[in-house]
Specification:
The structure holds two protein chains of two kinds. Chain A is an alpha+beta fold. Chain A has 20 helices and eleven strands. In chain A, the strands form two sheets. In chain A, strands 3, 4, 5, 6, 7 and 8 form a six-stranded antiparallel sheet that branches. Chain A has a four-stranded antiparallel sheet with strand order 2-11-10-9, covered by helices on one side. The chains are: A alpha+beta, B alpha+beta. Chains A and B meet through helix 12, strand 1, helix 13, strand 2 and strand 8 of A and helix 1, strand 1 and helix 3 of B.
């Protein structure tokens, strides 16, 4: 019964989405208020309907209803409750349902929070959201129905891939989707603006919170994914430039660019066409990412069984959305008027540089990700593009980006004074050189790249703090004065500093863990001790244990330094029964200074076990940094100006001239 | 600063960055393309020693010989075989008779030194490249289609 209700409300959602995609557009064209207003109600109904469908599928999972094919394929009655629930979106059909649900949720949020949007703009935005919803709901209903029944119902399900039975991965897809779908809102705003033929600072102000939220969720989603890869795959790596990772990284890069270019539109009314184009590209990359991962074009844990009907639908949908929006852009964009002028050395100029580099990086990643697919399609040759390509293109382009990150915020709008900034940044330069120099002296034989990375970390960290100190005039007058300035500084400015510091911390984590990692690989017998990275690891043996739905060999290590008590680590080699599969569970002791990482492998039949031990300095800072970036985004999102909603277009014009303090924000 | 002049600056900056990127791509692309070869492919289209590629096929029955963390085995597509050596922990589900993809390079003597052995993700999963290579060599028996 639950499945039938789910199916029914899903059809209801599709019908609603069709109307939501058509009526408000007509209403906006004819300036018919009731038709425009229809979008609001439709967004609510669509959300309610998809929520119903999602609830039905969840009930099916929680109650282990094995008459539903989807539950049979992805769940098992013995599975822990958390993974029964995460199993709802841990498969192709369910993940698409989650996508549509978030899409409807955000659509409703626009309807709800967008009270101060002009009627026509809001109607068009909701209509575009509706049209995207139509695409997804049709895809679900016609090719990937999660409510399909199976008869006779089997006694138990096939279980969820044990690699996916993990808290990190349970929440990785929802966060990524929040990010992907968040970009659909900026996309809808961009298309609506193209239809209206008008982009102005007010538009940028409406778009910014959505971009920020999407960017923040993507950051967290990607961080969770890499954290999962780090501790679950047992290779000690955290980023493999795997196509699946790139699929989420590209929208993030585009969203980062968009975030920065939207500032120029907001503050200076310039770069409008470019920002619109970026919004289209960012969402297109989100769609591409979702489908690349879910369609089985790329083979990985994420790829679920694919059938040709899906592939064709996906291709048509992508062509329709990307092609259609770019066509609209081509027709309408040239008619939009350019905004304020600025010198190459200026805040705008630095943001243009940021965008140039970020979009070039996106393009090189896209090339490396898609090339194997095209080559396979056209010549049948199987190749993969490995990490060397990505490292060779990403690092040289990211380097100037980080250098410029410290400069940019110092520059004034319109025309900056480079010489003055160099003198203000000389302390950051000194810090970078001194830090690298110290490391070179202290750790002889450090690779040049590592010194460069650590230098960049110091440069960006000190540069960001200096800029923040400058804004609040720290140490340039009474402290109370600085305090007052700090309180008055818009939260978006604090947010930028925090997010940039987050980037610096990520650079620290990556560089240090790559450059100073130590590793031991070998057979160890109980009682043996090895020294890795200054820690002694004593192997105390291994024993068989039984978990809720697996058996395992569990090793015991004692890691200690000098005389202190040390910590025990228990890596496991698990064998799941449903589905039958083995996984490696690394045991990790995360610390701020380093992670201790142990893996146990096969027994050698002679009392010894193959083991791998890593000492990874500062690696936690990669995820701490990502979280700091997210916190910066959240801080910026909580900015009063955004929280109160954007003031009306007319009101805003006067607000700008009366608020010179914003000129640097 | 006129609009025209600004556009010129943009275009120039864009072209500089893009040409740097293009140069980086061209320089690294050829070397970082990792080809996939089955043992039979390798006979037809040899890959020079030292160059990285991915070797896929089945782990030959009875070929695994492990000394501590050094593993030797042979990869076969049931027509040709290639000897492989690998230092490290073999992935979960590495089994004789099962599909495997190893990344590494050949020595002058024709020994494949693997830097990474890719796991299948579950009992029924066959890397698509391996499935295709087996189909080509006429040795494909539909496994995991049940």
């Amino acid at each position: 019964m639950v499945a039938e209700i789910g199916q029914f409300v899903l059809i209801l959602a599709l019908v609603t989405a069709c109307f939501q995609g058509a009526l408000p557009l007509i209403g906006a064209a004819r300036e018919n208020r009731p038709l425009m207003r229809f979008g609001d109600n439709a967004a609510f109904v669509q959300f309610a309907a998809i929520s119903g469908a999602f609830a039905c599928l969840t009930i099916g999972y929680v109650t282990s209803d094995f008459s539903i094919l989807n539950v049979v394929n992805n769940s098992h009655s013995l599975k822990p409750m958390l993974y029964k629930i995460s199993g709802v979106w841990g498969n192709h059909e369910g993940s698409l349902l989650l996508w549509s649900w978030i899409l409807a949720l955000f659509g409703m949020a626009v309807a709800f929070f967008g009270r101060n949007l002009p009627d026509s703009l809001k109607a068009r935005v909701l209509a575009i959201q509706g049209l995207i919803g139509v695409g997804f709901l049709m895809f679900i209903l016609f090719t990937s129905n999660p409510f399909e029944r199976i008869s006779p119902a089997p006694l138990d399900g096939n279980g969820l891939n044990p690699l996916l039975q993990d808290p990190g991965l349970a929440f990785h897809p929802p966060f990524l989707y929040l990010g992907y779908v968040g970009l659909s809102i900026t996309f809808s705003f961009a298309i609506a603006a193209l239809i209206e033929g008008r982009v102005d600072p007010a538009w940028a102000r409406w778009v910014r919170p959505w971009t920020l939220a999407a960017w923040g969720f993507l950051t967290i989603g990607i961080a969770l994914g890499s954290w999962w890869a780090y501790y679950e795959l047992g290779w000690g790596g955290w980023w493999f430039w795997d196509p699946v990772e790139n699929a989420s990284f590209m929208p993030w890069l585009a969203a980062t660019a968009l975030l920065h270019s939207a500032i120029v539109v907001e503050k200076r009314d310039a770069l409008k066409n470019w920002t619109i184009l970026l919004a289209i590209i960012a969402f297109s990359l989100s769609l591409l990412g979702t489908f690349l991962v879910r369609s089985g074009v790329l083979n990985s844990v994420h790829a679920f069984a694919s059938d040709p009907a899906r592939g064709v639908f996906i291709l048509i949908f992508l062509i329709f959305v990307i092609g259609g929006s770019l066509l609209l852009y081509g027709i309408r964009a040239p008619k939009m008027k350019g905004g304020g002028l600025f010198a190459p050395i200026s805040r705008e100029g630095s943001l243009v540089l940021n965008n140039l580099l970020l979009s070039t990086i996106t393009a090189t990643v896209l090339l490396g990700t898609l090339y194997p697919i095209f080559l396979d399609a056209f010549t049948g040759a199987k190749v993969s593009v490995g990490p060397p390509y990505f490292n060779a293109t990403f690092l040289p382009l990211a380097l100037p980006l980080v250098v410029a990150m410290a400069f940019g915020p110092f520059l004034a709008w319109k025309r900056g004074d480079l010489a003055g900034i160099v003198s203000r940044l000389k302390f950051a330069l000194f810090a970078a050189l001194a830090f690298s120099g110290f490391l070179w002296w202290w750790q002889t034989g450090t690779p040049v790249m590592a010194l460069l990375g650590m230098g960049l970390f110091a440069w960006l960290l000190v540069g960001s703090v200096l800029e923040w100190a400058e804004r609040i005039k720290l140490f340039r007058g009474p402290l109370a004065n600085s305090w007052k300035r700090m309180i008055q500084l818009p939260r978006s400015a604090h947010g930028m500093t925090v997010a940039h510091i987050g980037v610096a911390l990520v650079i620290l984590g990556i560089t240090a863990s790559e450059a100073w990692q130590s590793e031991h690989l070998g057979v160890m017998r109980p009682g043996e001790t090895v020294t890795v990275g200054g820690y002694d690891f004593r192997f105390d043996g291994a024993e068989a244990i039984t978990g809720p739905n697996y058996d395992a060999i569990q090793g015991t290590f004692l890691a200690y330094k000098g005389d202190n008590k040390g910590v025990y680590l228990y890596p496991e080699q698990r064998r799941y029964t449903d589905p039958p599969m083995e996984t490696t569970e690394a045991a990790i002791r995360p610390m701020l200074s380093a992670d201790l990482y142990t893996v146990i492998g096969e027994a050698d039949g002679d009392g010894g076990y193959a083991v791998r031990i890593y000492h990874k300095p500062f690696i936690s800072w990669i995820w701490i940094g990502a979280f700091v970036m997210f916190a910066g985004g959240a801080l910026s999102l909580s900015d009063r100006r955004l929280r109160l909603g954007a003031p009306g277009r007319a009101k805003r014009a006067s607000a700008v001239s009366s608020a010179p303090s914003e000129a640097k924000g | 600063m006129t609009r025209k002049k600004r556009r010129l600056y943009f275009v120039l900056a864009g072209m500089i960055v893009l040409s740097i990127a293009a140069a980086l791509v061209l320089m690294s692309f050829q070397d970082s393309l990792v080809f996939f070869r089955s043992p039979s492919d390798l006979v037809e289209k040899p890959i020079s020693p030292g160059r990285n590629f991915r070797l896929g096929g089945l782990v030959e029955e009875g070929s695994i010989d492990s000394q501590g963390v050094t593993h030797r085995f042979r990869v076969t597509d049931l027509n040709e075989t290639v000897p492989v050596t690998f230092d490290g922990l073999l992935p979960d589900l590495f089994r004789e008779g099962q599909g495997v993809v190893a990344e590494g390079s050949l020595t002058e003597e024709g020994l494949f030194v693997a830097t990474n052995v890719l796991a299948k993700h579950d009992e029924n999963y066959m890397p698509p490249e391996v499935a295709e290579a087996l189909k080509k060599s006429g040795q494909w028996k539909p496994e995991g289609s049940d």
